[in-house]
Design brief:
globular, Glutathione_S-Trfase_N, Glutathione S-transferase Yfyf (Class Pi), Chain A, domain 2, Glutathione_S-Trfase, 2 domains, Stringent starvation protein A, Glutathione-S-Trfase_C-like, 11 helices, single chain, alpha+beta
């Protein structure tokens, strides 16, 4: 569980559930969907990532990585989206989003988290986002001063100034995504949802990845089971309210 002590103490007096999130953030999507599925009331603190509203002293004082989402539950700060959805399901038990083998379920959450920086972010930035969120020299200096996470610093250094992601970066990201969605395709053979007959945290963790990369041009033609699964997902209110309400079409971002 990723619980941190914020340096921005203003959030420690918050009562109830508060979510700092970005409309176009796939990590934010999974937390919004979980909150909706659980029927929980929450206060929205939306940050426009294209306007770099997350790159401020105040927000880095809440989340030291400057990433969204951040959940505050009665003054306790939680970061990392897959840890957050796991926390929400354990803390607010009904309706449960845990089904099937626990180790398999957690394996899907851990895999989604593990490929975020090596695969999902490079693919999305290289194909779509990098030109849209170029930082000025002043903004870059601000980010570098605030960001202490070396992995994230190295990632964003690849598109600072006039730099672009290399073909090698995109090829590596694509290879990881191919392997993961091949695994998902095989898992969904004969299953409605990832864990079987019941919709779970595993599905919530993975559908935002599908949504954003298909919006970046990734083809799911080799994965008919994944296509069927995503079409089923599109019927759910939590997808409509947690994803489409905030980002109607990632292809238009």
């Amino acid at each position: 569980m990723a619980v941190i002590i914020p340096t921005n103490k203003s959030v420690e007096i918050f009562e109830g559930l508060h979510l700092y999130h970005g409309g176009i953030s796939n990590c934010s999507m999974r937390v919004r969907m979980t909150l909706i599925e659980k029927g929980l009331d929450w206060e929205s603190h939306h940050l426009d990532l294209k306007k770099k509203e997350n790159i401020t002293d105040d927000y880095f004082g809440i989340n030291p990585n400057g990433l969204v989402p951040t959940l505050i539950d009665n003054g306790v700060v939680h970061i990392e989206s897959n840890d957050i959805i796991d926390y929400l399901d354990e803390t607010y038990a009904e309706p449960s989003l845990r089904h099937g083998d626990e180790a398999e379920l957690m394996g899907w959450l851990h895999l989604a988290a593990a490929i975020h920086v090596p695969a999902c972010k490079p693919y999305v930035y290289a194909t779509k986002m990098a030109p849209k969120i170029k930082k000025t020299a002043e903004e870059q200096a601000k980010y570098n001063a605030l960001q202490q996470n070396e992995e994230l610093k190295n990632f964003h250094a690849k598109h600072e100034g006039d730099k672009n992601f290399s073909t090698s970066d995109l090829d590596k990201a694509t290879a990881i995504l191919d392997a993961c969605f091949f695994k998902l395709e095989k898992t969904l053979e004969g299953r409605k949802w990832i864990m079987g007959d019941h919709y779970s945290l595993a599905d919530i963790s993975w559908i935002p990845l599908h949504f954003v990369i298909v919006g970046c041009g990734y083809s799911f033609e080799p994965y008919p089971n994944v296509i069927r699964w995503a079409e089923e997902f599109a019927k759910k209110d939590s997808f409509k309210e947690g994803v489409l309400k905030w980002c109607p079409d990632f292809a238009d971002v």
